[in-house]
Each structure stands twice: as C-alpha cells, then as structure tokens.
Amino acid sequence: MNTHLHSFSGFKRRSFLQSSAALGLLGLAGCATTSIPSKAKVVVIGGGYGGATAAKYVRLLSDNKIDVVLIEPEAAFISCPISNLVLSGGKQIGDLTTSYAGLSRNYGITVVKDYASAIDTTKKAVTLAGGATIAYDKLVVSPGVELMFGSIEGLKDANASGQVLQAWKAGAETVALRRQLEAMPDGGVYAITIPEAPYRCPPGPYERASVIAGYFKAAKPRSKVLILDANPDVTSKGPLFKKVWAEQYKGIVEYRGQHKATAVDAKAGIIKFDVQDDVKANVLNVLPAMRAGTIAVQAGLNNQANNRWCGVNYLTFESTAAKDVHVLGDSIQVAPAMPKSGHMANNHGKVAAAAIVAQLSGWDVNPAPMLTNTCYSFVDNKSVIHVASVHEYVVAEKTFKAVPGSGGVSTGPTELEGVYALNWASNIWADTLA
Amino acid sequence: MRTSRLAMLRQSTKLRCIALPLLCLALCPMAQAQSAGTKEALYVKSLAASCANCHGTNGKAVDGSSVPSLAGLDKGYIVAKMKAFKDYKPGDQPAVTVMHQISKGFNDAQVESLAGYFAAQKK
C-alpha cells in the first residue's frame, strides 16, 4: 500500500487524488461508507478470496435481493498469489492490488472498512472495532490465517522490528522483503523456514525459493537460497520443484527437510531448530505455524485439530460450532486433499453463497456441490508449473473428495503456463472483486 | 366418418401426450437455467460458478484473456470440447495445460448442464 502511494509521489496531491478517484482506488470505498447499517441479512467478515467472493455471489445468486455488508480492515485487496514475483522483481505490489469499489458499485454491497472485534453467535450480531454493531441472519467468517509468532522464540519482536519478515500476507512486508533481498550482498544467504502442514498455500514457499533463486542467478549469482522445511519432504509438486532446483538452480538452492524452527536471533542472523544445527543467513524469512484467523478463534469457531482450525459442514460451510455462521477459506479444517489456497477459498465462497441463498429462500441446499482448484507456481519470472484438482461432495462420507481420475500436475515448467497463470490471476481477481 | 374423426382426435391427443414431455425434456434444463428464482436455477448457476475463477463470472473472461470466455458459445461446441479434453493425451497438439485434468472431474450430466448455462449467457 505504501509503495503504491510512493509510486504517485511525483504527482501533486490534488492530481493524485483526482487520479485515485478516476482509477477507483483504495480507501475511497471505505470513505464512501457514510452509514453502517444496524442489520443486514448477510454479514461477511474478511474481504479475501473467500469472503469477497461469498459477498459478491450472495448478491449474484439472489438476483440482488439479499442485502450484504462486507467488513474488511484493509483499504484494498492485495493478492497473495503472484506476490512472490514482487520478491523476484517481476511484478510491483500495485500489480496485485484491487480496490473494493467494484463490489459496492457493481453489486450494491456495503463495504465497511473496519475490524470485526467480536461476534455474538447467540444474539447474532458482529461488533466492530469502531464500536458499531451489525445484526445478521447469516454470517460469513473468512479471516484467513493467523501466523503464530509466539510458536518461535524471538520471532514476535524480530518481526515487529522489521528484521525478520514473513511476507506471507501480501502487502507492506512483501515490499520490505524485496528491499532486504536487494540490499543483500552477492554471496549472501536467504533462508526460508516452512512450518509443518497444513499451512496457507502448500507450494508457496517452494515457489518463493525458486523465483528468488532466479533473481540471484541473474543479479547476484554467488548467493544461496536455503529452504528449511519442518516437513520431511517438499509438500507440493515435489518432483517438479526438485528437478528445477537440480537443473536450473544447481549450486544456488539447497533443500533441507526435517528442520523445525524453534527460535530466531535476528541480531546474529541465526535460526535455531528442534534437532538440527543452527543456521546463519543474511536474510531470514521465517514462516511460523498457522491457525484460523483471530476473529474465528475469538468467536470459538476453532473446534478442530487442537483448536487450530474451524470445523464446517462441507455441504454448506456452516460452522459445526455455531448456527448460521459459515466459515470459509484458510480458516477451515480441510477435507481430504483440499489445499489452503486462494482458488479453493473462492470456490468455498460460491458453495456457501449458494447454500445461504437457498436457506434464506426456504429451499433445500444443493445436494451435490463441486469445487475446483488450480495452483500455479512460477519457477522463475516466466515459467510455471501447476497442480489442479476437482472435488465432489460425497454424501455417504459428508465430505469433499477429489473426483477419481481427475486433476494432476504439469509435466514440467513452460512459458505457456506462465501466460495462463497471469490470466488466471486477472480472471480470479475480477471474479472475486469486480 | 364419426368413428374416424374420433380416432383422429384420439390419435392427436396421444401424440400431444408424447410430444409435450419430449418438448419439456428438450427445453427444461435451459429454461431452468434461465428462469431466476428456482432452486434448480440456483444449483446450475453455482455449478457454473466453479468455472468462473478462470473463465470469468458467468463465463465472461476479462478483456484480452488467453483463457477463453464461455458465455454465448454453442452448447454442442462446449460439450464436444469437454469430450476432447477428456480424451486428450499428453503430447497431442495443440498442447492442453490443465483442462484435460479438470474436465475429468465433471460427468456427462454436469457437462450438459454447464454447456446449456454458458450457451444461454450473453457474450
């Protein structure tokens, strides 16, 4: 966001404001919200891939008959998918930024720029940090993940001071990590630690390591990328990534499994592990374990996997902890083979929206919902590999399962898939927000 | 004379009895997809929404997209294309990147329903 404003810094303030208005940029959607309704049929918490899609599709599938309020603290949507290309220098953060104005302009959604600070599932009302309360008939909770900084000693302070970044939620940290990589001397080491699965975006850390290696290869070829994975092996597209590292980034990328980070010393540039030896690096990118987003935890929706994730009825995405509350995206306890991805969250949003429209119309919900997923990973600024899957609701098991015989991965990285990956991004951003 | 007129009437009634369900079979999926406010229309729309991530909301991709729009395409073309994707083998030309894997997730009835929905959307 800051970078976005910096890019306009040459403009006079007035012309900036005019151009912002003309482009329908950031923040203005929030300003346009003059009054917060005290009641809405559907309230959505979180304007990411899950929540924004659910908000839009409740309007779309109800022929605009059901009113929707979307609560989102950020001024604009910044996509996590494609954000690794900001680290490699292939994209600017502005390229991945989309205003929320389209949701209000095109679909009549009331976008409230605020935090949801509390949910009363008995009284069916959401309280905002600003003090207002909004009652709902149906609530959608899609807050993404909370990074558990406290799970790694020293990480909370190191992150707060800007020394050790996560950049797993795209935005200011993404830009700051790019600056650290640019400032790193040739011959330096960039180290990324990966928490045990499940975490947001299974192939994301390996994509990040690859595209940063691509940057090093071109700009500072004596440098190294060290992948320190708490998992025993690469958790997604393993053979494809390993082939790229062995062939394209030989001598640059080193992968080490079974490395669970337990502490960081930002000053000394050291990461400590539960069993393995300490690692020293110039740029530390430490990803801690993750759990359901803060508001979902505060509302007690995190009733699965040692209270890390939220249980849902997969037919409707209604919480198993609270009636008329639907949880989407990265916060949920996943079904078998279901990744925590933006594409999947977008699909959750559609199944939940259809279920909500059916329930509010007094109809049976769709007994056979479907989900698709396509995760593209860049291995450099141009070439891409993917994993794709289709998931059907299996009545007997009350869960989603991959359709037998469907889905698969690329045979290898291609520039053709690079083109499709960027087109995937343009289309899913429009499908979610425009 | 009288008998034969009666017979004709009977026959035409019988024909109508057969013709109407046939007509309905042919038109109903599309009619349902188009007429808002029924649960069947909702189910079809939400199924079609699982394509929208890549092909655009209601099958309308963004301008300049190399992933094609599906809105307004011929129904038979979409059905045939999905079958061709299912039959695709790696190495066949032109190269298919993901649709040979995605298409196998949808059965014939779903493909028929999706094709009818997208064919009925404005370009």
Q: How would you explain this protein's 3D organization?
A:
The complex is a heterodimer of chains A (434) and B (123). Chain A has helices at residues 2-6, 13-23, 28-32, 49-61, 84-88, 101-107, 155-160, 172-183, 204-219, 238-247, 294-298, 342-361, 415-433, and strands spanning 39-45, 68-71, 76-78, 97-99, 110-112, 116-120, 125-128, 133-141, 145-147, 189-194, 224-229, 253-256, 261-265, 270-273, 279-280, 283-286, 290-292, 312-313, 318-319, 325-327, 370-378, 384-394, 399-402, 408-409. Chain A has 434 residues and is an alpha/beta fold. Chain A has 2 domains: 2-145 and 292-367, FAD/NAD(P)-binding domain, CATH 3.50.50.60; 149-288, FAD/NAD(P)-binding domain. In chain A, the strands form 7 sheets. In chain A, strands 1, 2, 5, 6, 7, 8 and 20 form a 7-stranded mixed β-sheet that branches. Chain A is globular. Chain A starts with a helix and ends with a helix. Chain B has one domain: Cytochrome Bc1 Complex, Chain D, domain 2. Chain B contains 6 helices and no strands. In chain B, helix 4 (75-87) packs antiparallel against helix 6. Chain A binds chain B through residues 56-57, 60-61, 63, 343, 346-347, 350-351, 353-354, 357-358, 361, 363-364, 366, 368-372, 374, 386, 388-392, 403, 405-408, 410-411, 414, 416-417, 419-420, 423-424, 426-428, 430-431, and chain B through 36-37, 39, 42-43, 45-47, 49-57, 61-62, 65-67, 90, 95, 97-98, 101-106, 110.
Rg estimate of chain A, integer Å: 21 Å
What shape does the CA trace of chain A take?
globular
CATH architecture descriptor text of chain B: Orthogonal Bundle
Beta strand % of chain B: under 5%
The largest sheet of chain A, given as strand count, sense and whether it forms a barrel, is: 7 strands, mixed
**Which range does the strand content of chain A fall in?**
15-25%
Q: What would you call the structural class of chain B?
A: mainly alpha
List segments of chain A where confidence is low: pLDDT < 50 over at least 5 consecutive residues.
1-34
Number of helices of chain B: 6
Residue stretches of chain B low in confidence (pLDDT < 50, at least 5 long) are 1-34
Report mean pLDDT of chain B, rounded to a whole number: 80
* CATH homologous superfamily title of chain B: Cytochrome c-like domain
Q: Which CATH class of the largest domain in chain A?
A: Alpha Beta
The CATH topology of chain B is given as Cytochrome Bc1 Complex, Chain D, domain 2
* Count of individual domains of chain A: 2
- Structural class call of chain A reads alpha/beta
Helix content of chain A: 25-40%
